[in-house]
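User: structure tokens for this one?
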Amino acid sequence: MSKIKKMLLGIGFMFALLIGTPVFAYAATLSTQTITGTPGDSVTVDLSYADQGSSVSALNFDLTYDASRLTFTSVTIGAAGTSASKIVSSNTVSSGLEKVIVYGINTTVIGDGVLLSATFTIKSAAADGSAVISIGGIVGSSPTAQAVPITPISGGVTVDGIAPTVIITEPLDGADVASGTVTVSGTVDDSTVAVVDVNGTAMNVP
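Assistant:
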């Protein structure tokens, strides 16, 4: 067999391998924000979309939340949805479950960013802890009405209604301090506290 024939066969074999290899794109994601609130608060949780190379022009999903701690109020379209001229609507299926749909009278592809926001009220008797908000049954649609996979990422609201205990260990209570600069040290028994106010001065909690 001549060198030219061998070369052509080799090129043909490589081409067959290339066209026979499927190309996979990463699935788009819809991520639920995690925030902290206290009983009685109205809190807004953002749901952010990342296309990961996918083309989605509409989607619907089930929004499940902890009804023992949260009361659903409303959903509003976010910047990513507005940019694509989309609207959002929800329907209450049961306590703790909302059916949400994002759509538009167009086939414009949705870009990255906050797609929508869900507002809840933390119940006055809500126990401290994590009120999980999750996405299920999510279905995306392409501009040509083809199904597009979207990976949901859960979030929620951390309910924190117990005031932390702050103990100042330095300087000692009642101590006379002559210098103009005082080092204040102490402990906080709440891992969610990031800043403590000491006589009007904000101090970071490590």
